[in-house]
Amino acid sequence: MKRIYSNRNKMMQTKVISNLNTKLKFIVQVFQGLIFIYFIYIQKQEKMFLILSQEDHPLYERRFPLKKTTLVSQQVLNAQFILHAALDVFDEKYKSSKELFLKEIDQKQDYRVYGYVTPSNIRFLVLTDQDEERVKIFCQLAHEQLIKILMNPLYQLGTQITSPSFESVIQQLLQNRLNQ
Amino acid sequence: MKKFQFFDKNIRQQRPELNFCTFNYIFAEYICYLKRKHGNDYDEMNSKMEQLGVSVGIRLYEVVSLRERNKRETKLVEQLRFIQGIFWKHLFGRQAESIERLKDRPNDYLIRDENPLLLKYISEEGHISPAQFMCGILKGVLNASGFTCQVSYQFKTDERGVSYYPHTVFILSFEDARDL
């Protein structure tokens, strides 16, 4: 009698444990599914600020790479790729416009590419999710700082800007104006 | 912190005034230096002056655009008006006299300046002249804003050979007919 009873106990115990196991597995699977959906719909994009000369030489680049890679990493496009792909649209727009700030050139979900041209055809490109006004003010301030670099007679026009103080000033501007 | 001081300066509102004699002293010394270095090679001397003018022109164009007005120009005639009016006034204190176009040379524009400031204390020699420096400035401005051209100068002389020095005419020859 005792053996049968203990056997029955054991069977009941294993049944309870296996029930728990399946429930746990189910919960874990649901959780994974939710994370999957989260990373598809709420995409995080790299942000970038790029300065190009008239002959398409990059004078200055500043990227904000994502710190953690997401689960679906193929859908996170390289910010540089997006900016360079927006260049033909940019070219059309700036050759016919008298304005300096060219507003939105391209769009990818929530993130937009903004363009700005200086009188000597040096182009700024910003990939961000901020709104137009902020980007315009940021571009105007960055333009002033760029002129200070240009006024240096030892700076060769068309080469990369390597001044560390320029980088720190641009970083300050980005933090203040674009919440980067 | 010393590095930041340079970038904190405001270049929008400054209208610095410089003593002309100071500038002339340096400029005359520069011409003497070129003469010493290259001797009788007038082409080399002229091209060096022009190079200096080009780099000065691009930088000045950016600064003057920032201070005087915040627009770009896409049409050539408007750009020439800007150079003749605002730019010339900013550099030399007066506007250039006129913009002209000859019938038999449809690709050329002329900018006439009856009393260029740079030639005030420098005599006419015939082979080299500070007018080449001014040609360089014009070339820099026009190339930077997207209109490629070559600039040369001529002093006005009468049919009888009477020279009206320093009355100068700057000849802008545009290669690309689309710019016109």
Automatic annotation (TrEMBL), chain A:
Q: Name one GO cellular component term.
A: cytoplasm
Task: Extract the Pfam families matched here.
Answer: Sedlin_N (PF04628)
Q: Name one GO biological process term.
A: endoplasmic reticulum to Golgi vesicle-mediated transport
Annotated CDD domains: TRAPPC2_sedlin (cd14825)
* Statement: the UniProt record of this protein carries the keyword Transmembrane helix: yes
Q: Which residues cross the membrane?
A: 20-41
Annotated PANTHER family: TRAFFICKING PROTEIN PARTICLE COMPLEX SUBUNIT 2
The name this protein carries in UniProt is Trafficking protein particle complex subunit
Taxonomy, top ranks, is: Eukaryota, Sar, Alveolata, Ciliophora, Intramacronucleata
Automatic annotation (TrEMBL), chain B:
Which keywords belong to this entry?
Endoplasmic reticulum, ER-Golgi transport, Golgi apparatus, Transport
The record's GO CC annotations read: endoplasmic reticulum; TRAPPI protein complex; TRAPPII protein complex; TRAPPIII protein complex
Please name one Pfam family that this protein belongs to: TRAPP
Q: Name one GO biological process term.
A: endoplasmic reticulum to Golgi vesicle-mediated transport
Q: Which domain of life is it from?
A: Eukaryota
- Localization per record: Endoplasmic reticulum; Golgi apparatus, cis-Golgi network
Q: What span is annotated as the signal peptide, if there is one?
A: none
Entry similarity comment: Belongs to the TRAPP small subunits family. BET3 subfamily.
PANTHER family the UniProt entry points to: 41-2 PROTEIN ANTIGEN-RELATED, TRAFFICKING PROTEIN PARTICLE COMPLEX SUBUNIT 5
Assembly behavior: Part of the multisubunit TRAPP (transport protein particle) complex.
Q: State the name under which the record lists this protein.
A: Trafficking protein particle complex subunit
Q: What is the species of this protein? A: Paramecium octaurelia
